[in-house]
Specification:
It is built from 4 helices and no strands. It has 143 residues and is mainly alpha-helical. The chain folds into 2 domains: 82 residues; 48 residues, no CATH class. It is a multi-pass membrane protein.
């Protein structure tokens, strides 16, 4: 049931974004884009994440509405203009995947660094010594 709730949430968000955002942006310019972001994404986020149509487990990768909106946009063009649209979007999808992998690597490095700094704060040091001095002493086995 969780899968179907997520699919419904993704589909609703994707269809509304694809049908409303472009006319607002075309008719009202930049203001229309901001207006669309406010009147579409806000309520869709509330429905999907706050109400709980899309559930994200603590131990799983976070899946946001952007995935559903992106898939909806790609498939809309495939249905309207044919399979060539999917083929022409593959380089963009590939670059997005590479960006996601790089972002994951950077996020993991940041988390690792934050954990290391947190552990360093937890360690007790000798009065008047900082952690680096104590590490140097431990490496030289002077303690």
């Amino acid at each position: 049931m969780k899968f179907f709730r997520g699919m419904i949430g993704f589909c609703i968000a994707g269809m509304i974004v694809m049908s409303v955002w472009t006319p607002l942006a075309e008719n009202y310019g930049i203001f229309g884009g901001y207006l669309a972001a406010f009147i579409i994404i806000g309520p869709m986020w509330f429905m999907n994440h706050h109400v709980g149509l899309i559930e994200n487990d603590e131990d799983a990768a976070f899946v946001d509405m952007a995935v559903g909106i992106g898939i909806c946009g790609i498939m809309r063009d495939v249905f309207m203009r044919g399979g060539g649209e999917l083929v022409s979007s593959l380089p963009t999808i590939g670059l997005v995947a590479i960006g996601a992998v790089l972002a994951g690597i950077v996020a993991a490095a940041i988390e690792k660094d934050m954990a290391r700094k947190h552990e360093a704060k937890q360690e007790k040091t000798e009065p008047g010594m900082n952690i680096k001095e104590e590490e140097r002493l431990n490496e030289n086995q002077l303690v």
